[in-house]
Structure formats: structure tokens, C-alpha cells
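Please, structure for the following, as C-alpha cells.
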Amino acid sequence: MNFDPPPIRSLLFVPANRADRMQKALASEADGVVFDLESAITRETAAEARANVVQALESHKPEQPAVFVRVSAVGTDDFAPDIEACLHPSLTAVMLPQVAHPEEVAVADAALEGTEIRIMPLVETASAVRLAYELAIASDRVAYMGGATGRHGDLGRSVGFQWTPEGTETLYLRQKVLIDVRAAGVPNPLSGLWGTIDDLDGLTRLARQTRQFGYEGMMIIHPTHIPIVNQTFSPTPEDIDAWHRLIAAVEEAESQGIGAFRHEGRLIDHAHLLTARQNLARAARLGLL
């Protein structure tokens, strides 16, 4: 696909049957918003929610957060009408819940034929953890994916873990899925989420750990979480300056035939140059340069 998916640090969930909250989310500083047509609404309000999604997509402006829509699971009666409601050029990605097999990603891919809409399979089952790599390569539309940590959520029920604020019970799950999606070439791995709205210290700890693992962003459930997550997943001005200095030092050294050398107290070589360039490219896509 030619469509370059936008980088997402913060991905905010909003019930699609709440038009007022949808508009507030689109006015927020989140990188992306998820209009939820699945578990956040009742089936009785599905038609209204789909109409809200259509209206939000038709009025969406480029400067607003990227729009995702969580549709009903492949194989359910609601999947086709949910997909039909969100087929619009303003949609960045369809979020697939309860994915268990690569064939479900392929079904979604076929439903999106002729569009540049991306796919984000949700890792909510033990099968999805086990087959994360296969899910990630099932379609070249997969641009966002990662391991989940929700308290008493679908993955917890499927695996049977007991949630703790420290997250030790999901360390392997999140790291395993991350390696799989990175190996598959998924450009924007996302994890999360932190379900305790007012515990911002806990959110900060989880966000830092998630970034240290190698994820690019987090799914979130409340607007107050946006600033913390955006800051955690953004390089600092000091980081950017250090990358510029490192690149200049390596390029100068290599012009003189020098490979590895000492720079600001560290031994560096060409690998560090590639990493710094990659980090600066991400910073540029986030609009931080």
C-alpha cells in the first residue's frame, strides 16, 4: 500500500453512541481516536452509533486526530454493517476485536478492497498472542498492533492472569507480541491500556515501561491520559540534540576512515548512526523537528 500510516502515540477510545464525546475527542490532543462500535455500545444503539460514525468521518478535518473505528468481530451479524458505515477516505484504520486466526484479518482486508484504510488487529485472546506474527502478516494493511494489558478485560479472561499494577503478569505477553509485530514489519506497535482513570502515577509507570519495551504508543480510555502518554512517547529536545551531535560525529569519523570511536563517553559506530537517523525520522513525523 502507498498510504503512509500516521504515527500514533495516544489512541483514545470513545463510545460511538455518544456524539458529544466523539466531537470532544476530535478536538483533543490525542494522535488518534477510536470510535467504538463494539463493546462500548449496546446492540440497541448500533444503528445510531453507525450514523454518528458516518457523520464524524464526513466532517473530519486533516488537522484533527486520526480516526479509527472498532467494528464488531468478523463472523458476527454486525461486522458487515459496521464496515459499511466506516468506508470513508477520512478513516485511518479499522480495529478488529476478538481476532483468533489470520483468516479473520484476510476477511477484513477483502472488505476494505479499493481503499487505503489500514487494519489494527486487537490482541485480546490467547490465540491472538500465540499467532501474533501470523496475524500481522495476514494483510499488508496491518499498520498498528500490540499486546494488551487491560484489567479484567478480554485477554485477562482468555489467559486467566490476575492483574497487578506492576504488570508482571503481562510482561511476556506484551514483549512476545511486540517482537512478532516488529518482525512482521508493523510500523506502529501500540499497547495498553491503563484502566484506572485517576491514577496518573500508575499510568506514567506503565507508559514508561511500554516505551522502554519498544512500543510506539498506547491505547487510552480518558482524555486526562493524553498529555502523559504523548510526552512519554515523544523524544525530548535533549534527545534530538544528542542524535544530531552523534550523526555529525559519526559522519566526520567515517569520512576519515574511522569506524568505532569514543563519543561523549560512549563507544559508538555505524549502528548508532542508523539508530539516530531512525529516531530523528520518527521525531520529524511527529512534528517535533
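The chain has a mean pLDDT of 94. The first helix runs from residue 19 to 26.
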